[in-house]
Specification:
By secondary structure, the protein is an alpha/beta fold. It contains seven helices and five strands; from the N terminus they run βαβαβαββαααα.
């Protein structure tokens, strides 16, 4: 059984000394480091090496929770993966230790809260889509500029509408419609329905 430390600083001019001292005092026999690596980045070589080095019965130790996870969801995923491998986790600042019953309870609560937050976000998204549909709007990407829609848009533009107005009428994105009109104009020089200003 070994205590394996992981330390990270976000910028190259920050110092790891505080974290290294705390990890050494906690008994970490080996410490993996990442220098100048933001916590939001997925590619953290030091963390990858630490996770690969850990064996059943080891414990990963960090100074603070935010040194490990990019987000609460990511943190919970990493700790859950460690637990499946028989590896413990300790955060010194928050006094969390998943090798103890109290520490495992804390992380189970964190996990439940994370799932609760994800469920709330999903419910709000579905409710928003349902409300928009009830008002006649649909979510998702604008429909493609099909040949039929392009012809209808050309007719509307010939009647005096601009590209934005015509795109809204035929339910396609303005940029997609303008690109389709431009492409058609390039293949048929006689077609003068393609406006010169896409912003109109």
């Amino acid at each position: 059984m070994s205590l394996i430390g992981y330390a990270r600083v976000s910028t190259s001019d920050q110092d790891l000394a505080l974290q290294l001292d705390a990890l050494a005092a906690a008994g970490a026999g080996r410490v993996f480091e990442d220098h100048g690596v933001s916590g939001a980045r997925a590619d953290r070589p030091g963390l990858g090496e630490a996770l690969a080095f850990l064996r059943d019965g080891d414990t990963l130790v960090v100074w603070k929770l935010d040194r490990l996870g990019r987000s609460m969801t990511h943190l919970l995923q990493v700790v859950a993966d460690l637990e499946r491998r028989g590896v413990g986790f300790r955060s010194l600042t928050e006094s969390i230790d998943t090798t103890t019953p109290a520490g495992r309870l804390v992380f189970h609560v964190f996990s439940a809260l994370g799932q609760f937050e994800r469920d709330l976000i999903r419910e709000r998204t579905q409710a928003g889509l349902a409300a928009a549909a009830a008002r006649g709007r649909k979510g998702g990407r604008p429909l493609a500029a099909t040949p039929d829609k392009v012809r209808r848009a050309q007719h509307l533009i010939a009647q005096g509408l601009n590209v934005r107005e015509a795109a809204a009428r035929v339910r396609v994105g303005k940029s997609a419609l303008y690109a389709a009109l431009k492409a058609e104009s390039a293949t048929d020089p006689a077609d003068n329905h393609c406006p010169q200003n896409p912003a109109k």
